[in-house]
Amino acid sequence: MLVLNDLGKTYRTRAGQVRALHGVSLRIDEGQFVAVCGPSGSGKTTLLMMIAAMLRPSGGTVQFDGTDVYAISGPQRARFRAHNIGFVFQMFHLVPYLSVLENVLVARGASGKRDGSRAKDLLQQLGLQHRMQHRPGALSAGEKQRVAMARALLNQPRLILADEPTGNLDPENAQCVLTHLGEFHRAGGTVIVATHGPAARELATRTIRLRDGTVECAG
Amino acid sequence: MFVIRMVLKEMWHRKVNWVLAVLAVTTAVAFSVAFFTAAKASERETARLMLSMGYNVHIIAADADAGAFLINGIPDKTMPADYLDKLATQQSISYNHLLATLEGKMNWRGMDIVLTGIAPEACPPGQKKPPMTFQVDPGTVYVGFRIAESLRVEEGQTISLGGRDLKVKKCLAESGGLDDVRMQCSLGDAQAILNQPGRITGIKAVDCLCFEKGDPVAVLRKEIAAILPEAQVLQIKALANARAKQRQMIHNIFALMLPFVVAACGVWIGVLAAMNVRDRQQEIGLLRALGYDAGAICLLFLGKAVLVGLAGAGVGFLLGTTLGLTYGPGVFEITAKAMIRWEPTLLAFACILAPLFAVVASVIPTMIAVTYDPAATLREE
Question: Which sign, positive or negative, has the C-alpha torsion A124, A127, A129, A132?
Answer without folding.
Answer: negative
